[in-house]
Amino acid sequence: MEDTRIVFDELKALMGKTDAASAARRDELAAWINAHKDEPYVREAYAAFMAEGLAGIEADVKRLRQQIDGQYDLLPIAYIARKYFGKSRSWLYQRINGNSVRGKVYTLSDEQKAVFNEAVQDIAKAIGSVRLS
């Protein structure tokens, strides 16, 4: 039972990381969970892990919406998506709004949040330097 908590704690720490080592370790942990999925305490831990993850996603989306409320229309989402992520506007909208796509809820990872914050700061600097002569 202690092993189960350790597995889910480690899995939680790896969520949102995109490096190869983290992805490989997540796959190992997923295989362990799958191998033990019929054990009641693993099922309970999995349900709690997913509920906690969804609550975190909902809180992140709510916080992000509050931060950009009223300014959302000012952000050049298509530009940010293309220049900073190499993705489409809809890809970024889905993550900002926490939309469900093909049954999975997508949000920005911690790394992607840092990129988004950098993009907004770059745009703010660029706009701040504009002056009419």
Could you give the topology of this structure?
Blueprint: H1 2-14, H2 20-35, H3 40-68, H4 77-85, H5 89-97, E1 100-101, E2 104-105, H6 110-128
Antiparallel strand pairs: 1-2
Descriptive notes:
Helices cover 71% and strands 3% of the residues. Helix 1 (2-14) runs antiparallel to helix 2 (20-35), helix 1 (2-14) runs parallel beside helix 3 (40-68) and helix 4 crosses helix 5. Strands 1-2 form a two-stranded antiparallel ribbon. The mean pLDDT is 83. A hairpin with a 2-residue loop joins strand 1 and strand 2. The relative contact order is 0.09. The chain has 133 residues and is mainly α.
Radius of gyration: 19 Å
The parts where pLDDT drops under 50 for at least 5 residues are none
Which sequence of SSEs, written as H and E, runs from N to C? HHHHHEEH
Number of strands: 2
Distance from N terminus to C terminus (CA atoms, Å) equals 70 Å
Give me some keywords for this one:
133 residues; mainly alpha; two-stranded antiparallel sheet; 6 helices
In short:
This protein has helices at 2-14, 20-35, 40-68, 77-85, 89-97, 110-128, and strands at residues 100-101, 104-105. It is mainly alpha-helical and 133 residues long.
